Amino acid sequence: MKFKEKLAAREVAGELYVVDIEAETLHSLNPAALLIWNCLEKGLDAEKTAVRLAAEFDVAPATAAADVKDFMKTLAAKGLIK
Q1: pLDDT, tens digit (0-9, with 9 covering 90-100), for 46-66
Q2: pTM of this prediction?
């Protein structure tokens, strides 16, 4: 998994704002999505990312795994990851 090359991101008050420069779109990520984004950016796989999400937000591991999977599908659909 790789992030699209022409992205600009800035964290503000616990949220991440991602600009897709080519598509001229702005995406706002809440704290849970920010955690997932950061894990993926560090090269963690979906399973390890889900473990961190479950621990950080005190949710069931199955719920965290489903959330990570859904978020990655959303990123792919928006063309932000390959």
Answers
A1: 999 999 999 999 999 999 999
A2: 0.90
Residue 32, C-beta contacts closer than 8 angstroms, at least 6 positions apart:
53, 57, 67
Residue range 7-77 forms a domain whose CATH class is mainly alpha
Q: Are 50 and 61 in contact (CB under 8 A)?
A: yes
Specify whether the CB–CB gap between 33 and 42 falls below 8 A: no
Handedness of CA 12, 14, 18, 24 (dihedral sign): negative
Torsions phi, psi for 14 (to 5 deg):
80, 5
Q: Cα separation of 79 and 61, whole Å?
A: 27
